[in-house]
Amino acid sequence: MSSGSRLAEPGTPPDPAVPAAADTVPAADTEASCGHPDGVHATARIRATHNGRVTTLPQLRSDGPFHLRRIRTGGRGATVGIIGAMSAPLGGDRLALDITAEDRAELEVTTAAATLALRGPTTAPATYDVRLTAGEHACLRWLPQQLISAAGSNLRQTCTVSLAATSRLLLREEQILGRADEEPGHLVSRIRVHRAGRLLLDQHTAYGDPAPGWDGPSVLDGHRAVGQLLVVDPELDVGRAPVLLREGIKDGCAVLAPLAGGPALFATAVAPSSSALRELLDQALGHALGE
């Protein structure tokens, strides 16, 4: 969540400098599958457009466990916070977020709290699909809080990104494997990014039993926090060698490297704790931006 920003409370007078969303629709209902062994099916949608002066939100549709709120920041961009309205994802849930920043729009999306994957009423995996689209000269920032894989959970998470040639993206994802003193559930994660119609990144990872070797020295080496940071910008300086940040077992480490096929830098990090992981990813972002 942006520093100094706050969620607009119900009944707050509209900010005259920020056009109100034209289609802010709460979920009509939780689908009939709520509580059913097959789980909850829900898709929340965010669409941001640029009106020539500021970014507006003509579509802000909450659904199921996703309650969407615009965060007032006073800038020309738009920031949306996602508030969890119920425990999710549970086994059998089918959840999706569809987020679009149209041409020249500037949109940041975050979550108010960590997402906790829990054991559900069925052993079937839950799915959590995030779809990000950015148009020409758009700027999209996807900065959720951590995803926690609790013991007994089974989650398949995907993040699918489609970028125009001139769009910019900042993506940060963090996974915490197990709560305090517990083993993690089974977590399968995939990040797939296309830029100008060409594949830029396709990363597939799996943690927790029954994934083989996930805790070995070539993967996590005993760490329980893992994260990814992706920066895509047509003006990004990618003429550099990979950078190893804070090498060592005690505090974890991260690698920041350019991606072939685009002006992009990608960091992967492992750490013993969520705070150490965030510090590593912040360091990687600073290196990427030349700070």
Give descriptors for this structure:
291 residues; mainly beta; single chain; globular; 1 helix
Overall description:
Residues 1-38 are annotated as: Disordered. UreD, UreF and UreG form a complex that acts as a GTP-hydrolysis-dependent molecular chaperone, activating the urease apoprotein by helping to assemble the nickel containing metallocenter of UreC. The UreE protein probably delivers the nickel. It is found in: Cytoplasm. With 291 residues, this protein is mainly beta. The protein has one helix at 274-288; strands at 6-7, 24-25, 41-50, 55-61, 66-72, 78-84, 94-101, 106-111, 115-117, 126-134, 139-143, 147-149, 154-163, 168-177, 186-195, 198-207, 225-232, 243-245, 253-258, 264-271. The protein is built from one helix and 20 strands. The strands form two sheets. Strands 1, 5, 6, 8, 9, 11, 12, 14, 17, 18, 19 and 20 form a twelve-stranded mixed beta sheet that branches. An eight-stranded mixed beta sheet has the order 2-4-3-7-10-13-15-16, with no helix packed on it. It is globular. The two termini are 21 Å apart. Residues 1-36 have low confidence and may be disordered.
Give the biggest beta sheet: 12 strands, mixed
Roughly how many Å apart are the termini?
21 Å
The total domain count is: 1
Fraction of residues in H or I helices = under 10%
Given the structure, what is the number of helices?
1
Beta strand %:
over 45%
User: Tell me, what's the shape?
Assistant: globular
Quaternary status of these chains?
A: single chain
Low-confidence stretches: 1-36
Average predicted local confidence, pLDDT: 86
Rg from C-alpha positions? 19 Å
Structural class of the helices, strands and pairings? mainly beta
From N to C, what is the helix and strand string? EEEEEEEEEEEEEEEEEEEEH
| Number of DSSP-assigned strands | 20
